Amino acid sequence: MKKGTAKLVLIGLLAFTALAWLGLLKNQIDSSSAYRKYLEQGQRYEEKGIYIDALESYEKALELNSGSYDITMKLADMYYQVGDYKGFLACCDKAIELAPKDPQAYLKKADYYMEKADYSEAMEVVKSAAKVKDNEDIQALSKKLSTTCIEKYSSYETVGDWHVQPDRNYVTVSEEGRYGMAAKDGTRKIKCTYEYLGAYDKDTGVIPCCLEGSYYYIDVKGNKKLVGDNTYQYLGSFGDGLAPAQRDGKYGYIDTEFHEQMFELDYAGAFANGVAAVKKGDKWALINCKLKNITDFTYDEILVDSYGYCSMFDRITVRTGDKYFFVDHDGKQIGAAYDGAAMVAANDGYAAVKVGSQWGFADAKGELVIQPQYENARSFSLGLAPVEENDRWGYINTDGELVVEEKYFDAGVFSPDGAACVKSVAAWSFLVLCEYDS
User: Where are the transmembrane segments (predicted)?
Assistant: First the structure.
């Protein structure tokens, strides 16, 4: 190629490139101008409350700048204003994808679920904000949600204690003097047809019951499973392979084959964690599942729940004379004695204790951590405890802050699965912490 021709080709290429860049620059300028135009339009419409047109303008702006977090958040607001909540949530999710460490999209989405009283979804949003570090608003919402409850209305006359098993979370309830079982949402799992109903045991899969004066064991569907040859005045709940029973006026223990042991007691409690409470005459003791004494018969009382368990958790509540204190599963005293004490409701949880006429709380060492100030109280579980003031019950957290309004006539402790029984006037319902609601 001749030198002059090559020079012309080079000049042509440079000219073509320059024109291409000029075209690209013009397109960029045009796009930038259009982008500003759509933004300004959107802002004007938004200020006037014309949200449907603002939405359209912001959508056009986003088409020209698809990675804009701010415009995506604007679109979320507009979708919310026009009632398109699906679009709102989609924009929140897109904003989170664009800026996973920015708290605003998480908060916007969580607030939406809070307005809808869909607390479990709000909790999921807060949990998903793990990449947002040390944000006060996220932390405050998380704290609020941790004590937010959903009331599951029902109308049971009485309720028992929670006895949560890995495959079941049922509580005994009664209607018109007959007993059945309900789940934590209040739905009946076993109809209220029995004169007595104990606790479900996962290992044996059975529940003690009494119908028409006869005691036997049923499964969770109400089918008969275990029936003894002897006539019993009482059959208790199983634990550690044994169940308490009463025959001919004396208590002892049976296994699933109804082999009888130790029928020399005036009371026998159910086993949990290898420990049960028993009584001879006026005195109580702790025994192990080999039916050997852990303690002597020295106590005037050992507190048991509505199914006869004393040792579901790490401390057992006992009384000697007019003083209550806690012992471990070896019978060793923990901390000081009090004028009253409730059963422990969670391992390491604060226990309700009474000093004089008022109730406060003691820690796992038996030392006061919340000063006595309540008319009545029950122990902490999942960081919450029922307390009574002015004849009404509510719930406090471990800082002593009232987090569930004192409006109930009675209130129980929260189960490990996040449910508590509360009484309004004459009927019992259920509270479920939103984190545990499904």
Answer: none
Query: Which long-range CB contacts under 8 A does 164-171 form with residues at least 24 apart?
Result: 164/415, 164/416, 164/417, 165/200, 165/201, 165/202, 166/202, 167/202, 168/200, 168/202, 168/220, 169/415, 169/417, 169/419, 170/200, 170/220, 171/415, 171/419, 171/421
Let me know if domain 33-149 sits in CATH 3.40.50.2300. no
Per-residue pLDDT of the chain (438 residues; tens, 9 = 90+): 555 555 554 444 444 444 444 444 344 444 678 888 999 999 999 999 999 999 999 999 999 998 999 999 999 999 999 999 999 999 999 999 999 999 999 999 999 999 998 888 998 999 999 889 889 999 999 988 988 998 888 899 999 999 888 778 889 999 999 999 999 888 899 999 999 999 999 999 999 999 999 999 999 999 999 999 999 999 999 999 999 999 999 999 999 999 999 999 999 999 999 999 999 999 999 999 999 999 999 999 999 999 999 999 999 999 999 999 999 999 999 999 999 999 999 999 999 999 999 999 999 999 999 999 999 999 999 999 999 999 999 999 999 999 999 999 999 999 999 999 999 988 999 999 988 887
Distance (Å) of CA 272 to CA 275, 300, 341, 399: 6, 21, 20, 30
Which helix (H) or strand (E) segment is 394 a member of? strand 392-397
Q: 191-225: string of b/e by CB count within 10 Å (b at 16+)?
A: ebebeebbbbbeebbbbbbbbeeebbbbebebeeb
Do the Cβ atoms of 293 and 277 come closer than 8 Å? no
Domain ranges within the chain, ordered by starting residue = 33-149
DSSP string, 15-42: HHHHHHHHHHHHHHHHHHHHHHHHHHHH
* Coil, helix or strand at residue 80: helix
Q: How far is CA 70 from CA 76, 88, 128, in A?
A: 10, 14, 21
For tokens 């209220």, what's the residue? 192
Q: Which residues have C-beta within 8 Å of that of residue 128, sequence separation ≥ 6?
A: 96, 106
Instruction: For the beta carbon of residue 51, count every other beta carbon within 10 angstroms.
Output: 18
